[in-house]
Automatic annotation (TrEMBL):
GO terms for cellular component: cytoplasm. One of its GO terms (molecular function) is protein-disulfide reductase activity. PROSITE patterns: THIOREDOXIN_1, THIOREDOXIN_2. This is Thioredoxin. Keywords: Disulfide bond, Electron transport, Metal-binding, Redox-active center, Transport.
């Protein structure tokens, strides 16, 4: 259990849990295990190997872009989602999940149309939005849910 003065942040590289003082989240920080940056200002690639760590163990919400390589609107929104990451970190982690490569996870979230954005906090879906959006709309929509993981 974390207290209000620190947050558990999952490393995007090795999935180690790192306790970071809340007032130092914006300072970046490095993983205590692999020594790589905890935040890079870009979405991480989510797979069956790292999804649960980021979705359930982190104290910051996870914003997931469910997409596929054959989806025109998904490809069109990709740069917008990338741009949103630099504005939303460290309030939340952004991740991209390829629905073709990760069909079990996509099925678990009943993804019926793509692109679909889902905010997950402590393993629970707290918001969902389908359809391509520009960066400002992604940021505005997602900020409503910042801090819900704690």
């Amino acid at each position: 259990m974390t207290n209000s003065s620190s947050r558990i942040i999952i490393c995007p590289h090795c999935t180690a849990a790192n306790r970071v003082p809340t007032d130092r989240l914006g300072a970046g920080g490095k993983c205590g295990k692999c020594h790589k940056p905890l935040f890079a200002g870009s979405p991480i690639i989510l797979t069956s190997a790292n999804f649960e760590a980021h979705a359930a163990r982190s104290d910051i919400p996870l914003l997931v872009d469910f997409w596929a390589s054959w989806c025109g609107p998904c490809l069109q929104m990709a740069p917008a989602f990338e741009a949103a990451a630099s504005q939303l970190e460290p309030l939340m982690r952004l991740g991209k999940l390829d629905t073709e490569a990760q069909q079990a996870i996509a099925g678990r979230y009943a993804i019926r149309s793509i692109p679909t954005l889902i905010v997950i906090a402590k393993g629970k879906e707290i918001a969902r939005q389908s359809g391509a959006m520009p960066p400002s709309a992604i940021v505005s929509w997602a900020r409503q849910f910042a801090g819900m993981g704690a």
